Each structure stands twice: as C-alpha cells, then as structure tokens.
Amino acid sequence: MPVSLGDAYRGGYSRLDGRLRALAATDPSSLDTQVPACPGWTVHGVVSHLAGIATDIVAGRLGGVPDDEWTAGQVDQRLGVPVEEVLAEWAPHVEAIAAGLDARTIPPPAAADVLVHEGDIAEALADPVPHEDGWRDAARLLCRGKVRGLERPGTLTVRCGDDEWTGGTGDDGPVAAVEVAPWEFFRAVFSRRSVDQMRAWRWAGDPEPWLEPLTVFGLRTDDQPRCAAGRES
Hints:
Elements (H helix, E strand, L loop, with lengths): L4 H22 L16 H17 L8 H9 L6 H8 L3 H10 L5 H16 L7 H17 L5 E7 L2 E8 L4 E6 L1 H8 L5 H5 L2 E3 L3 H4 L22
Parallel strand pairs: 1-3
Antiparallel strand pairs: 1-2, 3-4
Helix pairs in contact: 1-5, 1-6, 1-7, 2-3, 2-4, 2-6, 7-8
C-alpha cells in the first residue's frame, strides 16, 4: 500500500529528528555545515526553516508559497537556538500537518518541502540516500504530476525505476526519452541538480527543450553533491 503524504511528512520529521539529535550529541560542529542546495544556509538553518514553516502553517500565517524574505526570517529567528529546541518547536505540529495533508486541507508542497530538505541535508553531510520507503511514493506522486503536466509542444517519456510517464502536448514539437534513477529525478525536479548533471542522464533525443520545464524552481548551474556512494535508489 502506498505511503500517504501525511506518513511521508511524519517519516521525514522522524528521520531528521533522530539524525540531528545524534549529531548534536556526537558532532555538533557538523550542524554548521553549509548546504549547497540552499546557499547561505547551514544544516541548522535548514531545520530552522522547516520548524518555521510548520509553525506558520499551524498558526495560519501562510497564504501561499513563502518568499525568500519570509524564509530567511524563519532562519534568522532561530540563530543560536540549540537544534534540540528547534526540533522540539516543530514536533507538536507534525501530526496536525500530516493529518491535513491526508485530508487535502494542506497542499502537497508541505510534504515535498520536508523530503526535499531532508535530501539537502543528507547530500551536504554525504549521508546515504534515505530509505526509499520514506520518500519514494511521495516522490512518485509529485514527479509524475510534473511530467504529465508538461505543456510545451512535443513528447517526453521519462523512465524512472519501474515507472514510465509521458508529458508534452504532442503536436510537432521535439520528441525525447530519458532513463534516470528515482532519487536523481526527484532531486532534479525540485531543482537540486545542475543543468550539466541533468544532461548526463541517459537521453534519447535532445534534452535541451525539456530541462527547464522539468524543474519546479528553474535550472541551476552549480553541480550538487550526492549522497554516499552505493546507496542510491
């Protein structure tokens, strides 16, 4: 049975809570590691953003996608706060947000935010890819929607693990196909892979017309780190 978005959110919180508390106890300096996917943010800063988003959602302060100024404020407000306290601030809101995701009163990006930032932290620390039971079903839903929603002329076929999705409006546009691992595709859809990293996938046909349309936040030029070797799903 597929993991719901609510369970994906719960799982993302639980894994981050365990990992960051362990780091605070054994290697606190690693919490100051810069996160390349989020320029200017450290590991501590990323979890500060996640706690801030959760607090703002439950308080009804978000009317849409927060802008850069808003998210920077979430991080700045928690500078110097021990990560255990930041996680404790987040904890009481997890169940309400998870329930809202499953009831569709909270939109899917709330789940995506946690899973994407979990990946940002894992890659910054060279941790293994999170176990696919925690993110794969949510990633499938989110990435499938992105591919099927492509509105440019032409046809793109994405083969991603056991899945195959087709997007584009057909017509007389370019035709291409790509084969890519689920984790890599999930990371790229949320703009966590550079244009060169995306070009390096196994493409049939010209990738150029499809690279930017596949990304939620646009193309990036800086190559991103990957998780520990041998654990990619």
